[in-house]
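Aim 2 progress update. The chain analyzed this quarter is reproduced below.
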Amino acid sequence: MAGMVEDPTQSVIDTIMAHMDALTPKGRILGNYILQYPRKAVFMTTKELAETTRVSEATVVRFVGQLGYEGYGDFLQALRDHVDTGLSLPERVELDGMTGPAGDRFHRIVLEEMNNLRQLYEHIDSEALSAFADQIQKAPSVCVVGSRISYTFAYYLGWSLTKVRKGVTLIKGSDSAAIDWLNNAPAESLVILFAISRYPTELIRLGKVARRLGHTLFVVTDSALCPLIPFAHRHLVAPTKSFPLVGYATAISCVVDYLIQELAGRDGDELKKHQDRLEQIYRENDILFDMHTERMD
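Predicted structure tokens:
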């Protein structure tokens, strides 16, 4: 029976190199091919990889098990994460499926997001999800941080959290004042940092600052290779199977939706008081359109 990869944050390439001496001769043929052509291998089935390297499919399956992966799908996900970190924008455009008729492209994108959701459903760490919700509920103060595309998710979670609790601060990582906001946050705040490939260095810097300031750092990311994971107190990976041109939104949006609904289902009377106050403020300041009171001219 296949074991588990000893360090899931280690690149699959490093894992292959570490096991190379212990592999069979045919296993080394596979390993050398993947080391040389990872961007080709990542799109291959077991049959295609076996035919390309002139070994049997059984050899491919044994090779994956020797590396510590539970199955070929887990191996491909690890290889996908490795390849994704090194793809430039021009290289992403050249990937299969990025070009073609607009109608075909739309259906491809929808199918890719459906596959990404299946990947999330089958591989999400449910215990980590629950622990995230627990910490958000207990934390005296929460800072939500994102930068570039990940700011989209940070804003979504930060704005949504204001509907279920107090003490939430939204921080834009690309703002030079982000460090000031972290420094001014209450002691032992919970810092939730969204980091999406291709991982802006400013977020890595802010993650290190949050740790030095004594805050609790939680990282939500799309890959086990995220460079913030090694110094986070806890992390949650929302994996995707496809290679995005810029980014895929569905998987991490589902994580945000879960966290908000989970928290909303826990707080009972306290939540109702908080939301009643919000609704009163909305009415007094005419914040939201009300179909029952508005009249069309």
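DSSP finds 14 helices and five strands in the chain. Residues 126-265 form a domain with the Rossmann fold fold (CATH 3.40.50.10490). These observations will guide the mutagenesis experiments scheduled for the next reporting period.
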